[in-house]
Amino acid sequence: MTDCLPTARNTTTATRWRSSRGVAALLLIPTMLAGCSEEPAGPPPETRVDRQVTPAVRAVLPTRPDGPLPAGTSCSSGGCHADFRSARFVHGVLHAAEPCSVCHQEDQGDHVFPVKRPGSAGCTFCHEETIGHRVYQHGATDVACLECHDAHASENVSLLRSPSVATICAGCHRPETPAVPHGPFAAGACVACHDPHESDFPGLLRGGEGPRHCRMCHEETVDAMATARFVHAPVTEQCQSCHDPHGSDHPHGLTDAVDQTCFSCHAEIEAMVAGASTPHGAVSLRDQCANCHDAHASDRPLLLKDRQDVLCLQCHDQPVTARDGRVIPDMTPSIRDRAFKHGPVESGQCTACHNVHGARQTRLLREQFEPSFYASFDLTNYALCFECHESALVTEPRTATLTDFRDGERNLHFLHVNREKKGRTCRTCHEIHGSDLPSHIAESVPFEGSSWALPIGFEPTATGGGCAPGCHVPMQYDRVEPINPGVVAPGASP
C-alpha cells in the first residue's frame, strides 16, 4: 500500500499535498475521500518523536489538557491520540513534520484546535478530484466526509469507519434483507454498482442509466440481445420493471412471483389462465411462464425458448397424470416417430390445436372436438377440425374434390360421420398427431372408452383402399372405378 499523501520526506506544504495523487486502488472500491497508507507502527524513523513521558506529564494527559503540552510531547504521544500512529491504515498527512497544523488551527485556548475548513471542504482541499465534477453527488458529502471516513487512522481500508462498506451504507440506507439477494448486495459490495461520492447517473450508478448499468455484469444477456431476432421490450427500457436490484423474496430477484410479474403487463393471458376450466400445469409449476419463454431475448416468436413441440416434450416425453386423473401417454412416439404427421405437428405448432395457457375445452383444445367414438352429428362438435378443414367434408354426400375417401363420387366421410345415431367421429379412424399410415389412419383405436383396441385394418391402393375393422365386414372403395356404385349414402340422392 502506498501513501495517499507525501510524507515529510517529500514535502510539508498543503500545496504539494494537493498536487499528489498516489491513491491506492482497490477492486470495485473507488478512491475514498480520505487517503491512507499501511504502516507497520509509527511514523518513519526520521520523523519519529521521543515517546518517553515523565510521570508528571502522564498524570495530566489522560484527561483533556487545559494548557500547553509539556515539552517532548505531541498530539499523538503520551496517551491521548497515540492510536493515530499505531493503526493499520494511517492518513498520509500524519507523516508530515507538523501534521496537525495541516487541518487544524492553533490552540484557541482550553486545548481547542478548530479545523481550518469546515465540513467536507477540509477533505476536498486536497482530494479535489473526488467530488463536485459530476451531475449527482452523494448526500452524505453535504454533511461531511467524516460520516464514512475517519480523518486520522483506521483499521479499515480507505479509513472507513467500519470494516464493511455495507455496514456504513446501512447507517443511512436500511433495505430489508431479501430471501434471494442480488450477488453484490449479498456480498456487501454496494460500490460494485454505486459510486459512493458522485456519478453522472441517478442512484449514483456506475454503468449508466437503466439496462446499461446492469450490462456491466450480465454480459450473456447483452450478447443474446445483440443477436436475437426478438427482444423483450422491458429489457431495452428498464430492468427494474421486473427485477429488484438488491434482491427480493422471489427467484431471479423478481419483484413478484414469475407469473404475477408477467401478468402485470400481459393482462389478457392472466384472464385466460384464471378463466380456464382446463388449466395447464406448465403455467403454474416450476418456473411458470419461464418454462417456455425466455424473458430477455429469443430467435423465436413470442420469446419461446425453442420450437413448440420441443418445449412440450420437456414434460410430455413420459406419461403425465392430468388433474382429472386421466393419464396422458408419452407423446414422443406420435410426435417424433411417425411416418405421417398431422400438419401442425409436422411444423411444430402445437398451439394450432391447443391453448397452452389454459382452455375451456378438454385436453387444452382451442375449440370443441368430439372426444368419443360414436356421436350424433352436430357440426359444432367439430369446430376445432374445421378451423383448417372444409366443413363440406362432412356435409356434402357427393364430391369429386373434397376428399380422397370416396367411392367414385360417394363421400365416405359423409357416410360415416353425418348420422343421427352412432355417427363415427374423427377419432374413430384417425390418429390425431400422426401415424405410419397415409391420412393419419390409425392401426387401432380404443373402442368407445373400453380397453379393447379395435383394429382398423386399413390397406391403401393407388386409387382407393379398404379396411377390415372390428365394426363391420371388410369393405373396399375406389375413386376411379367405384366398388359399390349403386349404394347411396343416407340422405343423399343417387
Walkthrough of the structure:
It is rod-shaped and about 135 Å long. A hairpin with a 3-residue loop joins strand 22 (459-460) and strand 23. A 3-stranded antiparallel sheet has the order 1-2-4. A 3-stranded antiparallel sheet has the order 22-23-24, with no helix packed on it. The protein has a two-stranded antiparallel sheet with strand order 3-6. The model is unreliable at 1-61 and 489-494 (pLDDT under 50). With 494 residues, the chain is of the alpha+beta class.
User: What gyration radius follows from the Cα positions, in whole Å?
Assistant: 41 Å
Number of strands: 24
Separation of termini?
A: 105 Å
* Low-confidence region ranges: 1-61, 489-494
What topology, given as strand order, has the largest sheet?
A: 1-2-4
Query: How much of the residues is beta strand, in percent?
Result: 5-15%
Describe the protein's topology.
Layout: H1 14-19, E1 37-38, H2 55-60, H3 83-86, E2 89-90, H4 100-103, H5 121-124, E3 136-137, H6 140-143, E4 153-154, H7 165-170, E5 180-181, H8 183-186, E6 198-199, H9 211-214, H10 219-227, E7 230-231, H11 233-237, E8 247-248, H12 258-263, H13 267-274, E9 278-279, H14 281-284, E10 297-298, H15 308-312, E11 320-321, E12 327-328, H16 332-336, E13 340-341, H17 343-346, E14 358-359, E15 374-375, E16 406-407, E17 410-411, H18 412-417, E18 423-424, H19 426-429, E19 434-435, E20 444-446, E21 453-455, E22 459-460, E23 464-467, E24 475-478
Antiparallel strand pairs: 1-2, 2-4, 3-6, 5-8, 7-10, 9-14, 11-12, 13-19, 15-18, 16-17, 20-21, 22-23, 23-24
